[in-house]
Amino acid sequence: MSRMKTTLNKFGLVAAALGFAFGHTASEFISTVIGDALMPLIEIIFNIGDWQNHTISIGNYSIEWGFILKDFIRLGIITTFAILVLQWLEKPDDE
After folding, report:
1. CA-CA to 47 of 20 to 30 Å: which in 4, 18, 23, 30?
2. Tell me: the pLDDT tens digits for 43-67?
C-alpha cells in the first residue's frame, strides 16, 4: 500500500483526480446558477416566454438559441476563471 501511495503522489495523480472532481462539480454549479438564475433574468429582459425552447428563424431554419447561449456564458465564466488562476499562479511571490 505504501508503494502505491508513493507512486500516486510522485506522479500527482491524487491532485489531478481531486482537481478533476472539483472542476466538474464547479462546472455543474456554474451551469445551475446560469440556468436557474441568469437565464430567467434574460427571459424577463427580452420578454421571452421560455428561453429553453425559444427559436430564432433564419430563412427556412429555426435555431433554438437558449442552450447555446447558456453554454456560451458558462464557457466564458470558466475560461475567465481559468485565466485568472493561471495569472495568479505565475505571479511572483511578494515577500
Report:
1. 30
2. 999 898 888 888 889 999 999 999 8
